[in-house]
Design goal:
Layout lengths: L7 H17 L9 H20 L8 E6 L2 E8 L2 H12 L6 E8 L51
Parallel strand pairs: 2-3
Antiparallel strand pairs: 1-2
Length: about 160
């Protein structure tokens, strides 16, 4: 009868522990088995590939996810035709049960938006002075509070 040398036992134990940790990543979730998770990843990958292979449109800004065979498309495209085409392409992929098309149209803006601002923050009113021609910073308004002193001991 052959025995395992003493120095191999810790190595075998460490290998077994690593194998158990590796298998823990493949365990099923409460609502999907490990096979279903892999199938959904495969479906999403195939849909993304089909969108990238579309001859007429390129869908670089579209994200694809799948859950139990239902594909969700999200992101941005330039035209409504691109949105419809992306949905049609996704429906033609094998194993796709349904398509939820949450693709949005890119906003059409006549002027480029500066970095750090949304298009709603743009000031369309070009006037920076009051009707009398005085600068707004020098005009007095009864509703504004006087400036506070940085020294808190003199200003309650």
């Amino acid at each position: 009868m052959q025995t395992i040398p003493k120095f191999l036992k810790p190595i075998a134990g460490a290998a077994a522990a690593l194998a158990m940790l590796a298998m823990a990543g493949c365990m099923s979730t409460p609502d999907r088995s490990a096979g279903r998770v892999l199938d959904d990843k495969m479906i999403a990958s195939k849909v993304k590939g089909a969108l990238n292979d579309a001859r007429v449109y390129k869908f670089d800004d579209v994200k694809v996810t799948a859950y139990k065979g239902v594909v969700q498309l999200s992101g941005f495209v330039d035209t409504p035709e691109q949105k419809d085409k992306a949905g049609e392409v996704a429906k033609r992929v094998d194993w796709v049960r349904d398509v939820v098309n949450n693709i949005s149209l890119k906003p059409r803006d006549d002027y480029p938006t500066p970095t750090g601002r949304s298009s709603g923050e743009r000031n369309t009113d070009r006037s920076t002075s009051t009707e009398s021609g005085a600068d707004r910073s020098t005009s007095s308004d009864a509703t504004t509070a006087p400036p506070r002193s940085p020294d808190r001991s003199t200003n309650p």
